[in-house]
Amino acid sequence: MSLRSRFTRRTRIALIGITAGGVAAAIVVVPSLADSGSSEPAAVAAQADYGPEPEADSELVTQAGGVSTMDTATLSPDTMINRARTWLTANNGGPVPYSMERVWKDGYRQDCSGFVSMALGLGKPGLNTVGLADSKSGVTTRLGSVSQLKKGDLLIDYRTDDGDFRHVVIFEKWANTAHSAYYAYEQRGTYGTTYRQLKYGIGSDNYDPFRPVKLGGGTGGGGGGQVPSPSVSWPVLKSGSQGADVKSAQQLLTAQGYSVAADSSFGPNTRAAVVKFQKSRSLAADGVIGPNTWAKLIKVVKSGSSGSAVKAAQTQLNVYSYGLAVDGGFGTKTRSAVVAFQKNHKLEIDGVVGPNTWRTLLGSR
Q1: pLDDT range class, residue 347, cuts 50, 70, 90
Q2: How many other C-beta atoms lie within 10 A of the C-beta of residue 244?
Q3: CB–CB of 95/191 below 8 Å?
Q4: How confident is the model at residue 226, as a pLDDT?
Q5: Scanning 24, 50, 321, 333, which has its CA 20 to 30 A from the CA of 213?
Q6: Which residues of 333-350 are buried (b: 16+ CB within 10 A; e: fewer)?
Q7: pLDDT (tens digit, 9 = 90+) per residue, 250-282?
Q8: b or e along 164-182 (b: 16 or more beta carbons within 10 Å of the residue's beta carbon)?
Q9: How is residue 158 annotated by DSSP?
């Protein structure tokens, strides 16, 4: 039976009776924040291939005996998240397109559960959402509440009794102290791989929290002293990104000799500077600032340091309401702010903005 013939009556009714080139469109209201940061649910235009995923007996779904992870050791949250990030730019610098009927170059199905299966290193082409949530698969265990969510956990709508629109996303970190939204990676219709703020599972909906059973607490470390918590990770910046993280990246690019305006907007000039910097450091020149690029881009700054790298640190500290003058001079006020920040985030308290402090400054929100 073809995938299209499996559409339920509810799904067929939901399709708008307008066909362009043989492709129907549907409007699905999802409980998420719009990409602009709005707290209202966003109406997402979804193609007809967004909904009734392949069933357990499909050749597009990993069968019994092929589920175990490729990793013999416990999978770290950072490794999982870094795998998820690869699909943001794997399609010639763009996201992997969404499809329930195709597999990507790495062998995983290009829908939400195939994406999560890839991040977890499960057998190819990947489980469906029902399989990811089923305790018999041995992949996840259900959490008691969303308040227990940690980096690498999943929110899954796996219900089979309320229509066809099942979905799963990867939790990265909370977006605010109120825990009313969070940042997540997902593979969604029309858009493909996406990193954005979501509200799935917050309030009344069909999303339940799950934890991969082989997910450990390691972060990948780096540097001396105490390391950031598992919920901390480098942000991913690319064309269209805006805000303080972009401004700090621009200031760090200037500190590395690639002068760009610190206007908090990731435009063509910033992307060009990032590409040049990546080439100079033998990195993948994709114009995206991810973990590998951040690791090369940051500079250690401390008392007596000066310049654009100090401005970048001051910009980040001010996000946490330290009220510093962004003057590029690492004086006593800046050091006091760094020490206070390190105490609050359980880092080594040395007043030096090194790799762990940079990562926490940029990834704790």
Answers
A1: confident
A2: 16
A3: yes
A4: 54
A5: 50
A6: bbbebbeebbeebebeee
A7: 999 999 999 999 999 999 999 999 999 999 999
A8: bbbbbbbbbbbbeeeeebb
A9: -
